[in-house]
């Protein structure tokens, strides 16, 4: 009888031990699940374009190449009207507002209203893109340059081709320089992972004369 009781007690103790192990595993799995959920899904890393000589960089610094890439992308997308400027321009201003300062947003909204009242948007298609050979440059001034005003402010000189058509007919085909002011903005990483905002033009735009391969402008 005592042997039966000892066997039953050993079984109950083993079952209790297994239950304790299962409880610990459940708690551990819950902790790992919480850590997985809390971990950031995206990380923004600014890497200089040339690492052959190595790079030392403070975490808060924004490389000029990253500032240039951000400015080019956002400005190009805002000025991309694939079918109808009246609808596309307005939609772009809403979609890209996290990448614009409030003053720049108001300035572009005013520009939209002015153009729309002059019937310069309806049915108009527009695109802007980098002029070949005039991308990012490490030079302090000139095409593709990024002027460092302070730790939190830059002026990016974008040399872009601007093409506009209406009903399939080209109505504008020019080269322009856009000196855009860019400021640091780390306040909304959920919607703006760049941590930068465009503050519109720092100076008036310039009309460029770019010679073609045959030397014509």
Give the topology.
Elements: H1 2-38, H2 64-78, H3 85-95, H4 102-117, E1 124-130, E2 146-150, E3 153-166, E4 169-184, E5 196-201, E6 206-208
Antiparallel strand pairs: 1-3, 2-3, 3-4, 4-5, 4-6
Helix pairs in contact: 3-4
Q: Based on DSSP secondary structure assignment, what is the total number of beta strands?
A: 6
Whole-angstrom Rg? 29 Å
Mean pLDDT: 84
Number of domains: 2
The first-level CATH class name of the largest domain: Alpha Beta
Uncertain stretches of 5 or more adjacent residues: none
CATH topology of the largest domain: Nuclear Transport Factor 2, Chain: A
Distance between the termini: 109 Å
Report the oligomer.
single chain
SSE succession = HHHHEEEEEE
CATH homologous superfamily label of the largest domain: VirB8 protein
CATH architecture of the largest domain: Roll
Coarse shape: elongated
Helix residue percentage: 25-40%
Strand content: 15-25%
The structure class reads alpha+beta
Largest beta-sheet details: 6 strands, antiparallel
Description:
This protein has 2 domains: 1-38; 64-208, VirB8 protein (Nuclear Transport Factor 2, Chain: A). The termini are far apart. It is 36% helix and 24% strand. The chain has helices spanning 2-38, 64-78, 85-95, 102-117, and strands at 124-130, 146-150, 153-166, 169-184, 196-201, 206-208. With 217 residues, it is an alpha+beta fold. The longest helix is centred in the first third of the chain and has 37 residues, at 2-38. It contains 4 helices and 6 strands; from the N terminus they run ααααββββββ. Strands 1, 2, 3, 4, 5 and 6 form a 6-stranded antiparallel β-sheet that branches.
